[in-house]
Design goal:
Oligomer: single chain
Radius of gyration: 43 Å
Helix content: 25-40%
Order of helices and strands: HHHHEEEEHEHEEEEHHEHEHEEHH
Shape: globular
Distance between the termini: 142 Å
Amino acid sequence: MKKIVSICLILCLVFTAAACSAAGTPEKAAASAIPSDTVVQQPLPDTESESSPAEAPASDAAPASDAAPASDAAAPAADDSLKYIQDKGEIIMGLDDAFPPMGYRDEKNEIVGFDVDMANEVAKRLNVKLKLQPIDWNAKDLELSSKNIDVIWNGFTILEDRKKTTLFSTPYMNNEQILIVKADSPAADRSFFKGKKIGIQAGSSAQAAVEGDAEFNASIGEKVDFKDNVTALMDLEAGRVDAVAMDSIVANYNVTKQAGKFKVLADALSTEEFGIGFRLEDKSFCDAVNNALADMKADGTSKTISEKWFGKDVTK
């Protein structure tokens, strides 16, 4: 009987030891009680007292001295426009070659004119050559911005709208926009042209002057666009238009050169000033040209050129 009891005690001890080994610590016992497909949520860190693991510690940030100053990032590009002209050794002058007496072709088909003589003198004083580049006047802004030309210089009127895209020199001449008609026309002022045809060079300041007078603009029967004033005057002479709106400088020149064909109405559409057009960023180049023009005025050169073309000094 004792033998049987001893065996039973031994078996109880063995089973007890095995159970303790399987359970382990209390934590292991608790884990063994959770099914294997259950996700255990870990406690979140205290966000007010602990940094998020995803955030880089402050010590890892780049030193402040390595960052580019804001003022450097916003600094404008250097103006090397004058150097650009000097390095290539020429000024490319964009002009309408049918705009006498400012710029046009003579009987030898050479481009001559008041603005051409003025530009040649400025180029000489800047120690560069002048290259003449005839352009479509309606595309002058694109020609300038694309650097096909360096300046627009050909009786170019200074207008507020143009200042948004063009840097202007100081004004060098006064001008008016007028209406020119055939010499035998009964027209005395703009009221005559109600329902009539008016010729205008496309993209010109004459176009702006006509459209700027709302009452007159609305009264016109038809506005006919022309590439240049010479062609417009040919149509006027042929009776295909009743008047041409244009610069008084050009109109008076044609009245003088073609005596008995045309007359200019005293009823001016607008008064204005001529200037030289540059790219907005070309300030150093513009300043150099302004200085040359001032020197020409002071030493009498511009007066001499003006008297050659107009018989008097019309420069400012």
